[in-house]
């Protein structure tokens, strides 16, 4: 039998939300400017990247669990 290759809902949401947060951070850097804009933008960019990385980890763990359950 073929293993289920669908991604989990958590991973899907992370891939939708993470890049949006990152792009918002870049926009904030250029719109606000100065120290406040740079700090806020950097926080948003890092937050977006962390959301995507967390989604990748959750997806990998769920694939491992599904593979272990089928054995």
How would you explain this protein's 3D organization?
With 71 residues, the protein is mainly α. It has two helices and no strands. Helix 1 runs antiparallel to helix 2. The radius of gyration is 17 Å and the shape is rod-shaped. The termini are close together.
Essential attributes:
single chain, 71 residues, mainly alpha, rod-shaped
Can you summarize this structure?
86% of the residues lie in helices and 0% in strands. The chain is built from 2 helices and no strands.
| Helix and strand composition category | mainly alpha
Largest sheet data: none
Helix content: over 70%
* Number of strand elements: 0
How do the SSEs run, as a string of H and E?
A: HH
Spatial extent as radius of gyration: 17 Å
Q: Helical element count? A: 2
Identify low-pLDDT runs. none
- Average pLDDT value? 86
Sheet-strand content, in percent, reads: under 5%
- How far do the termini sit from each other? 11 Å
The 3D shape can be described as: rod-shaped
